[in-house]
Amino acid sequence: MLKHILVLLGETQSSVAARHYAFRLARSMNAEVTGLAGVDLSYIEEPMLRFGLADYISQREENLKKQADELRKRLRLAYERECESHCVTCEWISVDGNPTDALSQAIETRDLLITGHDPACRSDVHEQLSELLAKLLLITPRPVILCADKTTVAQEILIAYDGSIPAMRAVQLFALLGLGRDHHVRIASIDADCEQAARRASGAVSYLRSHGYEAEANPIASSVDPADVLRIEVANRKIGTLVTGAYGRRGFRERLFGSTTSALVENPPCPIFIYH
Predict the structure, then answer these.
(1) 191 and 250 share a domain?
(2) CA 65 to CA 96: how far, in whole Å?
């Protein structure tokens, strides 16, 4: 059962949506929320030995550190106000230095990480599917919920299930954490062979029902890119959360993501629960 949530703080739209998702989930499951704000200063602390530039470099470092301090203050103030408005106890962690190391330590005592899809770990950097996010999903031993730019109020859950080991793991962690137990769950299995899709969906439905979920099979016979099919399903059915494994059957396009998952996380159609 879910008890402790870690939410990665930022100023992007998706980071705001991630906080709202975390607060709503915490209230529904009586869980605790901890906000983590970290600004990566390691890249300006590396040696920069260039003759005649010492003063310039020193001033640049001071300016960036000042920006980092101001960002942390803004994040903390915004987070404390939101905690108060959502009637959630405010727990806060602030980090100087490498945020990946801090995340690894913080997530050790939490069940779930919630973040926007474009977390900026530096005060002057905003990257979609940033290096931090890729490392995070690769190293974290916990599932991650990746939020889109807009806050969603939809409740129905869609599980993208291809029968792979990562998909099985994602379904198992989702069920064991008790997420969405009071909501309707659809199992979308996509395959050119309708019977194959139906068999896969049926297995996931049986597993979830054994854990007390109201689950329904949704086999889809299609040869279209699964990411496109899932986006259509999310839009048509007003899905609140999409559940998926980190790897797909179509093979690895990158070190971390399969092609389907990669296409989804670059521009999430809704909050995505990911586990690998």
Answers:
(1) yes
(2) 10
